[in-house]
């Protein structure tokens, strides 16, 4: 009843404390030592005498830092759940969106509510919205007042108030140092994205979620399959893993099964990457796409510098309506954006594969516009090779980059051939680019001709009714049996 009254008094503040919906540490996984550190906060509520007697330092404010979706809110709720205390949560941006002067008084109300409900945890999400470094030309009076009020409330309460403030941010770097001074948010806990083991733990928590009738949800995943899933979800946050399992469970439900399978998860992952499925195309169009994507996947798996194929699909998707060949992500390359000449040359072959295959299968008169976008990509790659990164052997280009950055409405673009270069140089570079393109087109045609048998098997498997997709392993198996890599 007290809760309900409080709820009425404070709009915007969420209060949670129902036994059924109680979140505990068991619901949070893959976050390393954070739980151990937060155990102390739980102990403060459960065994306050111990703190008082020993004169140990009482936790007042705990700051959870880390990227979005890593379980910071969940953790704060779990601390309240473990300690069975009231939980008042508020997003700090709600303070600043209010009228001048209101933010500070809301903070006052929030703390006085917490004191009446004590023992309690106040959780302020996105604290950076009020806690940015103060002052300066960009100063914001309203925000400063709100922050000052928050700080003075925290300074004001004592061990007896039995209220602990938890806050979360993914912008630790912009926080006002006043917030992290002793006696305020002096416990800082970093919650990062889960590692390999962590992802397995989180997947398990969500796969084995409690159903409405109190049973745990059944699933058929073996340890190896959980490992495989964890491997495939590198860079996923806890929230992304939770939503993946949720889509898989929905898919299982749609086909009338209760237990979630590995295939459900794979399918959900594929969907996540490519966007939801759309209406299938006519047989004609599907065949075109199968030739284009089949050839791309084939060429990708024949080339040593290209990452292994994960999946090739001609099922039209929200993000890729024309099908797609997905290769393993090379995280380092993605991060550094550093490409070698060999890699770019092979990349050039992969983007030209679709066109070459169309020519082989349908004949020159019947090639279509379907490859237009890839041809533009091919043009970009040769420009990079010859003009931007000076990777060609053409002596007229030599060690010169023939591009120059220029500003276009805040975006930096590369202009090819700025004025200062001679016509000879431009001409030479152009000739070199055309030569590279033609050479690559010839090479990929020859490669596909030699591997025609493998191409035909891939295309026919892709167009078999209901298939539409091949896994990387399936493509490699076909290449092993029918291919001719040399
Ligand atoms: P944050 O506050 O860090 O942005 P949330 O706590 O709101 O993230 O996470 C959103 C949801 O994602 C949670 O309710 C939970 O279902 C899931 N989730 C995120 N991290 C974890 C985790 N470490 N363990 C289990 N589930 C998690």
TrEMBL record:
Family classification: In the N-terminal section; belongs to the AAA ATPase family.
Listed name of the protein: AAA+ ATPase domain-containing protein
Organism encoding this protein: Elliptochloris bilobata
Location of this fragment in the whole protein: 321 to 806 of 819
Highest taxon of the lineage: Eukaryota
Cofactor(s) essential for the protein: Zn(2+)
Keyword annotations of the record: ATP-binding, Hydrolase, Metal-binding, Metalloprotease, Nucleotide-binding, Protease, Zinc
Domain AAA+ ATPase: 58-195
GO biological process: protein import into chloroplast stroma; proteolysis
């Amino acid at each position: 009843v007290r809760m309900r009254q409080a709820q009425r008094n404070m709009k915007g503040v969420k209060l949670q404390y129902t036994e059924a919906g109680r979140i505990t540490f068991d619901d949070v996984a893959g976050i390393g030592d954070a739980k151990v550190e937060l155990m102390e906060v739980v102990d403060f509520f459960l065994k306050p005498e111990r703190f008082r007697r020993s004169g140990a330092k009482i936790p007042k404010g705990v700051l959870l830092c880390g990227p979005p979706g890593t379980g910071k809110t969940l953790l704060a709720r779990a601390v309240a759940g473990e300690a069975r205390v009231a939980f008042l949560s508020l997003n700090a941006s709600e303070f600043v969106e209010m009228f001048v002067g209101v933010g500070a008084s809301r903070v006052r109300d929030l703390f006085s509510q917490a004191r009446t409900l004590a023992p309690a945890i106040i959780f302020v999400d996105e604290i950076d919205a009020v806690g940015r470094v103060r002052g300066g030309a960009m100063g914001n009076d309203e925000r400063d007042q709100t922050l000052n009020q928050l700080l003075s409330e925290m300074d004001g309460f004592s061990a007896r108030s039995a209220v602990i403030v938890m806050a979360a941010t993914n912008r630790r770097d912009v926080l006002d140092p006043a917030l992290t001074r002793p006696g305020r948010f002096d416990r800082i806990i970093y919650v990062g994205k889960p590692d390999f083991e962590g992802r397995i733990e989180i997947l398990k928590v969500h796969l084995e979620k409690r159903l409405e009738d109190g049973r745990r949800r059944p699933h058929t995943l073996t340890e190896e399959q959980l490992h495989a899933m964890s491997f495939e979800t590198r860079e996923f946050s806890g929230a992304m893993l939770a939503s993946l399992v949720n889509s898989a469970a929905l898919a299982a439900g749609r086909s009338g099964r209760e237990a979630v399978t590995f295939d459900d998860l794979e399918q959900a992952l594929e969907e996540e990457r490519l966007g939801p499925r759309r209406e299938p195309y006519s047989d004609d169009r599907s065949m075109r796409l199968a030739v284009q994507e089949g050839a791309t996947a084939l060429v990708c798996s024949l080339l040593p510098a290209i990452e292994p194929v994960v999946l090739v699909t001609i099922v039209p998707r929200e993000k890729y309506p024309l099908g797609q060949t997905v290769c393993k992500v090379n995280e380092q390359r993605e991060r550094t954006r550093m490409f070698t000449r060999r890699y770019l040359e092979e990349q050039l072959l992969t983007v030209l594969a679709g066109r070459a295959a169309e020519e082989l299968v349908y004949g020159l008169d019947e090639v279509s516009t379907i490859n237009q976008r890839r041809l533009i990509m091919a043009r970009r790659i040769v420009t990079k090779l010859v003009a931007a990164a000076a990777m060609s052997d053409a002596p007229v280009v030599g060690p010169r980059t023939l591009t120059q950055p220029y500003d276009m409405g805040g975006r930096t673009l590369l202009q090819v051939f700025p004025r200062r270069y001679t016509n000879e140089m431009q001409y030479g570079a152009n000739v070199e680019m055309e030569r590279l393109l033609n050479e690559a087109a010839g090479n990929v045609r020859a490669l596909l001709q030699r591997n025609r048998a493998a191409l035909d098997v891939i295309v026919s498997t892709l167009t078999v009714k209901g298939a539409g997709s091949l896994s990387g392993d399936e493509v490699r198996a076909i290449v092993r049996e029918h291919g001719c890599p040399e």
